[in-house]
Amino acid sequence: MEIKKGIAVSPGVAINQAVVLDAEDYRIPLRHVSPQRIKQEVRRLDQAVTRSRQDLAELRDRARRRLGSETAAIFDFHLALLDDRSLQNKIRKLIRSDSVTAEFAVADVLRGYAKEFLQMPEYLADRVKDVYDIEKRILRHLIGQSREDLARLEEEVVVLAHDLTPSQTANLDRRHVLGLATDAGGRTSHTAIVARALGIPAVVGLNDVTASVNAGDTVIIDGNRGVVIINPDEATIRQHRQYVERIAEFELSLDRLVNLPAITLDGHEVVLLGNIEFPHEAATVIAKGGQGIGLYRTEFLYLGREVEPTEEDHYQAYMQVIHEMQGRPLVIRTLDLGADKYTQERSPVPERNPFLGCRSIRFCFQNLQLFKTQLRAILRASLQGDLAIMFPLITSVMELRQSKMILRDVMEDLEEEGIEVRRDVPVGIMVEVPSAALMCNQLAEEVDFFSIGTNDLIQYTLAVDRANERVAPLFTPAHPAVLRLIKEVIRAGQRHDLGVSLCGEMAGQPEYTLLLIGMGLRTLSVAPPAIPEVKQLVRSMTMEHARRVARTVMAFDNDKQIVSYLRDQSRQVMPEAY
Ligand code: PEP
Ligand code: MG
């Protein structure tokens, strides 16, 4: 039995057999398979070799046509190496004799070849790069295959992977994937957000969990405590099953809150909204007692599909959510593509620094047609419900003006076509970049509302990549610099009589509820599973206490002190959750 500690990102506990996915650019760990699987591994190897051969023949022919026979000869060498009988036999032999995965055998044998080349005279030593190339090519096919297989699972499993993109996570078959654990990732990475949206218990940032698990091992993924247990003994499994029952009881006890308001003991009302990624989650928001949707991440319409959604696809998705909301408020955020979502996976030349690159509203400005298609659909739906539009990643007043100008253009186009739209549809922005937080007074003059996006605000304020497990301990909402920016935005809202909500993951972490309410926020938008617990906390506290907590916290100078103080205060308010 081995216990690994990571970052809890999606609640729930799963106990099942493991499927393990490797990453092509990552060291392939030694992983054994059962004797019954050996034949299958050899078959996978043969398929990957055949596909690699097809790639190479195509590349060679194209190179010959465009670049001449000298360049094409490189691929001839790759083909000759790939078809070398003794190489293939060595790989097969290793799979059979040591019962290892095809991935491990390919990496092991080809690394051995590379070493031999390195010891040869200089003109041959150069060939080592070709060997690495072949290794990567075969691995790519092997790994691609197992990722495709994931969509066609026939039994229940837990998935362990080095990393998954948000699209790959969105494509997981929920009926069969009961839990997810990855080496990489952070609490607010979009992969984590998707796992939460799909209701799959998940732990990320485990560093090397994939190296410790073999396919078929039993694994417990505890998405509440951020723990993964490999090959647990009977007593541990029993303990966890009991723990699952206790959680279910606690959740059931919160169900009674569904129709009750989020109101403090001294009568101050807080509006609790839900964050969604997929239209089907709208029903979950209501079922959990949310009063509307404060953030609809519409870019997830793009994830997991080969062709761009049409205006009609957008419109149908929005209408589905509007229908579910039955007059409750809905904030549709325009496309936040780029960074880790969608565009990099498809780009022939990925950006060096995608979170600082062509992301979000910048991507929309550079892909105007795509942006206008979405705006048309939102505006067409604007008269059907209580709908507001929110622009993401605004960094300046000029960017806001440009976004609004495009929105107006689209309105005029629709009206010219005889389509009626809501002219005064509320328009707001995400405040998720320090420049926007610092300019909040100017921005407040030109919007109807703010929503504070702490996931990005933290990463851009503290220079900490939200998806990088190596710096995960530095990613904290409790840094005094982040809290000061939040405070400024709340003040600007009060000064300009503007609605301000907070929709970053922080809003769903109960240890921050007292602080956020005490700082003056009256609307929180959180992942649907977090609604009941946050509501319970609001209903158990007084505004006077919350304000005192906020005052005390603002006087501290470091996050450690703030976190421990907040835990302590929250425990006093709701001991049953701690
Ligand atoms: C945020 O940045 O806090 C946010 C809510 O947006 P996203 O997580 O989609 O980047
Ligand atoms: Mg964001």
Detailed description of the structure:
The chain has 24 helices and 16 strands. The protein is an alpha/beta fold. It folds into 3 domains: 2-27 and 152-250, Phosphohistidine domain (Glucose Oxidase, domain 1, 3-Layer(bba) Sandwich), CATH 3.50.30; 35-149, Orthogonal Bundle (Enzyme I, Chain A, domain 2); 258-577, Alpha-Beta Barrel (TIM Barrel), CATH 3.20.20.60. The strands form 2 sheets. Strands 1-8-7-3-4-5-6-2 form an 8-stranded mixed β-sheet. It has an 8-stranded parallel β-barrel with strand order 9-10-11-12-13-14-15-16, surrounded by 5 helices. Helix 7 (166-170) links the parallel strand 4 (157-161) and strand 5. The chain starts with a strand and ends in a 5-residue tail after the last helix. The relative contact order is 0.10. Magnesium ion binds at residues 392, 432, 453, 455-456.
